[in-house]
Structure formats: C-alpha cells, structure tokens
Design a protein that fits this description.
It is built from 15 helices and 13 strands. The chain is of the alpha/beta class. It folds into 2 domains: about 190 residues, Rossmann fold (3-Layer(aba) Sandwich), CATH 3.40.50; about 180 residues, Glycogen Phosphorylase B (Rossmann fold, 3-Layer(aba) Sandwich). Helix 3 packs across helix 4 and helix 11 packs across helix 14. It starts with a strand and ends with a helix. The structure holds uridine-5'-diphosphate. The site of uridine-5'-diphosphate has 18 residues, from helix 1 and helix 11.
Length: about 375
C-alpha cells in the first residue's frame, strides 16, 4: 500500500517519533509530507523514509487560536492544499498525524478521492485546545476520516466526549523496539562520567520544557529530597515557552538547587540517558495522551513515577510496574521518590516487572501489524 503521511511539524515531539516507526514498514512506497522543515526531516531521511517539505510558509494557527486567526491561516493553506491534493493522487491513502495535517488531509482526501486516516495523538479537550480548534478537528474527522487511530483509551474517550464518532475509532498504543533500550554498562558509565553523575541518585525528566509537562513540580519535590539526589532535565522548549524556562531557572536558584539540577536541552540518546538514571519521573499537570517517556523508562529497566491522569493510567499500575502520584502534587512526589531511595530491592523488582511487561505489550512489530490490519479497512 502506498501511503501519503502528513505531519505539520518539523520538530521532534512524541507524535513525530511515533510516525517514524509507523512509516518505516512502508518506506519503499510512501512519502512523509511535512508542513515545516527541521530535525524531523533529517531523522526521517536517516531512517531511509522519503520526506518532502510541502509548505513554503509556516502555518501560524496555534492550539489555542480563535475563529478569526484560524480563518486567516486557512486562506494561507490553499497553495499547500493544491500541492497535497496533486501528490495524494499518486498514493492509496492519506494518513494525517497531527491536527493541521488533518485539516489539509481531509480536504485533499475529497479532492483526490483518497481515504483518510487520522492518527490522534492528543486529548481533544478545552485544557489543550481552543473551542474552535476542537470543533474543527472533530467535525473533519467525523466527516472525512474512514478511521481514527487513538493513541490511548484517554484520547479516544476525549474524542468521543468532544462529539467524535466512537465507531470510527480504534485504540493503538505506540510501539517500541525493546532492543534499542538495552544499553551496555560501559555506555552507561561513560554518560555518568561525562555528566558527573557518579555517586549521585539521579532522577531524569524527559520532556519538552512546557508548563503542563510540570518540570517545576519535580524541582519543588527535589527540595524535599536528600542532598545526593540530582535531577537531569532533558528536553527543550519546542514551542517558544521561554518564559517557563526562565521561571524554572529562577525556581532552581531560589531553592538553592543550582548544583543539583542540570538542564541538558534536547538529546537524541534517550535510552542511554534513561539507563543512567536511578529513577524517571513524569509530572504532567494535565492528562497525558499517551506518555512515550513512561514506556521508554520501563524498557530501560529504570523505575518510573508518573502523574496519575490520562494515558499514563493505562500504562502504569501503582506498585506493580511503576508508581503513580497526583498531578501537580510535589509533596506526594517527594514522598514516593524518598520511598524509592529507601526501598531499593522492591523498586528494582517493580522496574523489572515493568521492563518485561512493556517489551511485550508495546512491541513495535505487533503494533505495526495491528496498524497494517486496520489500514486495509479504509480501502474498501
Ligand atoms: N525526547 C527526545 N529528546 C529529548 C526529550 C524527549 O527524543 O530531549 C523524546 C522522548 O524520548 C519521547 C518523546 O520525545 O519519545 C516525547 O513523547 P511523549 O509522548 O512523552 O510526549 P509528547 O512530546 O508527545 O508530548
């Protein structure tokens, strides 16, 4: 099957990393069309996946845009739509991986007479989207998509609650190649040396820097932990959250934690870094649609504490394969971190359970087979 994948982003977020794994099996006969240039294009090329940047100017509509902003940017979409429609005629299926890709993909699917699949990586709620963006996404999906792949039960439920048709949806979790997360000790030691982490109890946070990802919750919790506990914050402000970055640095200074928090920026070697941590925390203050970092930590055999909301609750069973804490509650987080520090053996058993569970439940080849089966359906 020849697939035209569409994604609005040039940057590497969870949806884009997931798309690389989905597009790979179709790489000899498919194209990924992007609406912006950037690192995502390079990574697709490194994975031998054909990629083309289709937009000549950035599409400015944001998740919180109002009606008039959305309308103004819509007129700018027309050249892009013409281009996508022309390309789509050479493919059997349009696969929209993001919201703006859905807008363009939906219209192109009508003009080019090709079925449309929408991969939903978001929780479509007012917490994350403006009312107009929400309505546009649900209406387009309901009207034009043959299939909506939701990345968790939480994303599926939010879609239906926002007016989406339940019968269009299928839940497919992200898949992972567990081999990529088995890191030799020598590599782990090298990273620990480079980052001067030897002898420390290292807590990792792996996420773009954004208020709802809750890095500030971890920093507040760190102030309640013994001095050997150190935090590495891995990730960058991908969508211009510079004020938040300044606030985080200020919080670290105010709490006197300058020697215990390292801002590492965006890194490509996540499995190595996670393996060098004693603990990984996920601290999103709003429900996470899926939470790739949670599964990645599990696959590295590193114990994980996740915020109890959204997709994370489908991934973590408290005390069995990880720990759950109330979103936004830094005191509770500090308590669980301190328990992990003391209960080393129990925590290691839980991390081991998690590794076994995650490598089976989120195996990339099983997930890809699931998607391949589903993609037969919109052809009818
Ligand atoms: N990630 C990365 N480098 C970084 C920070 C994060 O490659 O510096 C990856 C991380 O390993 C994960 C993805 O970005 O695979 C984030 O996905 P997640 O579902 O956790 O959050 P999203 O970005 O979709 O909100």
């Amino acid at each position: 099957m020849k697939i035209l994948f569409l994604d609005q982003s040039g940057k590497l977020g969870g949806a884009e990393l997931c798309l690389i794994d989905i597009a790979k099996p179709y790489c000899d006969r498919s194209l990924v069309g992007l609406f912006a240039d950037g690192d995502f294009k390079t990574l697709l090329q490194q994975n031998q996946i054909s990629v083309e940047v289709l937009a000549t100017q950035p599409i400015k509509v944001q998740k919180q845009s109002n009606f008039f902003q959305a309308l103004a940017s819509f007129t700018k979409l027309i050249p892009l739509l013409i281009k996508v429609t022309k390309i789509a005629r050479k493919y059997d299926l349009i696969y929209a991986n993001t919201q703006k890709a859905l807008v363009v993909g939906a219209l192109a699917s009508i003009l080019a007479r090709r079925p449309l699949v929408y991969h939903l990586h978001d929780i479509l709620s007012l917490e994350h989207f403006s009312p107009i963006n929400l309505r546009v996404a649900v209406t387009l999906a309901n009207t034009f998509a043959s299939l909506v792949i939701a990345n968790s039960q939480a994303s599926q439920t939010a879609f239906v609650q926002a007016g989406g048709k339940a019968e269009l949806t299928e839940i497919v979790y992200n898949g992972f190649d567990s081999k990529k997360y088995q890191i030799p000790d020598i590599e782990i030691q090298k990273i620990q040396q480079e980052l001067e982490l030897n002898g420390k109890f290292v807590i990792g946070h792996f996420s773009r820097l954004a208020p709802w990802k809750g890095q500030h919750i971890l920093i507040a919790a760190l102030a309640e932990c013994p001095p050997q506990v150190t935090v590495i914050l891995v990730g960058d402000a991908l969508f211009g959250e510079q004020d938040y970055v300044r606030e985080l640095h200020q919080q670290v200074k105010t709490l006197g934690l300058e020697n215990r928090v390292k801002f590492l920026g965006f890194r490509a070697n996540i499995p190595q870094l996670m393996s060098a941590c004693n603990l990984v925390t996920h601290t999103s203050t709003a429900p996470e649609p899926f939470g790739r970092v949670i599964i990645e930590a599990m696959l590295c055999g590193t114990p994980v504490i996740a915020a109890k909301a959204g997709g994370a609750m489908e991934l973590v069973e408290h005390g069995v394969n990880g720990f759950l804490t109330t979103p936004g509650d830094s005191e509770e987080l500090a308590k669980v971190i301190n328990t992990c520090l003391q209960e080393i053996e129990i925590t290691a058993t839980i991390a081991n359970n998690a590794r076994n569970m995650a490598s089976q439940r989120f195996d990339i080849s099983t997930i890809n087979q699931q998607i391949a089966q589903l993609l037969i359906f919109p052809q009818k």
